[in-house]
Amino acid sequence: MKRDFLTVWDLSESEIEHLIKRAIQLKSGVDRNKCPLLGKSIGMIFHKPSTRTRVSFEVGIYQLGAQPIYLNSVDLQLGRGESISDTAKVLSRYLSAMVIRTYNHSTIEEFAKYFSGVVINGLSDEHHPCQAIADMMTIYEYKGVLKGVKLAYVGDGNNVANSLIEASAKTGVNITIACPEGFEPNKDVLNRAKQYISKKEIFTEIKILHDPEEAVSEADVIYTDVWVSMGQEQESRIRRSKFKNFQINERLLRLAKKDTLVMHCLPAHRGEEITDEVMDGNNSIVFDQAENRLHSSKAILELLLSV
Ligand code: CP
Ligand code: NVA
């Protein structure tokens, strides 16, 4: 049976652990010359802009021996009204997998229903699971462990926050979200994650706060993302005013542990959710995090396609 990766829930805890360790192994350069996906073609449909997801997947697919085909949605007949289901059925005849970035998560689910190959979510309004795997890999690289690590996400309860909550629940990371009232993560994501951790033997915590200072005080890792996600441009003004006290700056960092790590999925809006000083400072690991998108994407492709 084909395996899709639409949300973090599609992977078991041991698969996530495997992905992290395999991504670190791939990063070391072992297996550099192996091409486990030789002869396969993998499509990439993007309805939103992308730098990291697009390039890391294209390079990763090539390095694994397969052919990446970037499909700008306006160039496809999809842009002229061909249905998702017909597109998926036709592309099933050519492609082994598809990476999709779109608005409504249900679009990816519908595509996956009619596509016979593997579907990977390259970001939807609700989820960004590939990012969360790269993030867990990055935390593991720096801390040598995930269970018990305290992660404070300061900002919008958006797609990135949702997937981080799910990945934290799976890996035993204790996550605190500090967001303005009304910008909490998705309720269903939170309920499912809370239910999941309640059955775990190891204590794992998910907290939602509205005070960034309280959130960062004990954090091993501080994480942020943009205040205005792709597709929310019409809310820019109101969002910027609601989030103005949720900036990761030197003052906030001084309230955290000296060696706390600072992460951002990027692209950053420097001067909004994060200052230049923090983004370019000693605590920041944002560019290692970005690099890890490549290694973790390769591990994801290998896991889902080398069967
Ligand atoms: N972090 C991330 O997904 O970046 P892109 O939007 O550049 O792909
Ligand atoms: N929350 C951001 C993430 C970009 C990688 C967005 O959806 O625009």
Can you summarize this structure?
The protein is of the alpha/beta class. The chain has helices at residues 13-28, 52-63, 84-91, 105-114, 129-143, 159-171, 187-198, 212-216, 236-242, 250-254, 276-279, 286-305; strands at 41-46, 67-72, 97-101, 118-121, 150-154, 174-178, 206-209, 221-224, 261-264.
Measure the end-to-end span: 10 Å
CATH class of the largest domain: Alpha Beta
Number of strand segments? 9
| Shape category | globular
Largest pleated sheet: 5 strands, parallel
Order of helices and strands: HEHEHEHEHEHEHEHEHHEHH
Mean pLDDT: 97
Structural class: alpha/beta
Number of domains: 2
Q: By CATH's scheme, which homologous superfamily of the largest domain applies?
A: Aspartate/ornithine carbamoyltransferase
Bound molecules: phosphoric acid mono(formamide)ester, norvaline
Strand order of the largest sheet: 7-6-5-8-9
Please report the number of helical segments. 12
Tell me the CATH architecture of the largest domain. 3-Layer(aba) Sandwich
Radius of gyration over all CA atoms, rounded: 19 Å
Question: Helix amount, in percent?
Answer: 40-55%
- Low-pLDDT stretches are none
* Proportion of residues in extended strands: 5-15%
What is the CATH third-level topology name of the largest domain? Rossmann fold
Describe this structure in words.
The chain is built from twelve helices and nine strands. With 307 residues, it is α/β, with parallel strands linked by helices. It folds into two domains: 8-127 and 292-305, 3-Layer(aba) Sandwich (Rossmann fold); 131-289, Aspartate/ornithine carbamoyltransferase (Rossmann fold, 3-Layer(aba) Sandwich), CATH 3.40.50. The strands form two sheets. It has a five-stranded parallel beta sheet with strand order 7-6-5-8-9. Strand 3 (97-101), helix 4 and strand 4 form a beta-alpha-beta unit. It is globular. The protein starts with 12 loop residues before the first helix and ends with a helix. It binds phosphoric acid mono(formamide)ester (CP) and norvaline (NVA). The site of phosphoric acid mono(formamide)ester has 10 residues, from helix 2.
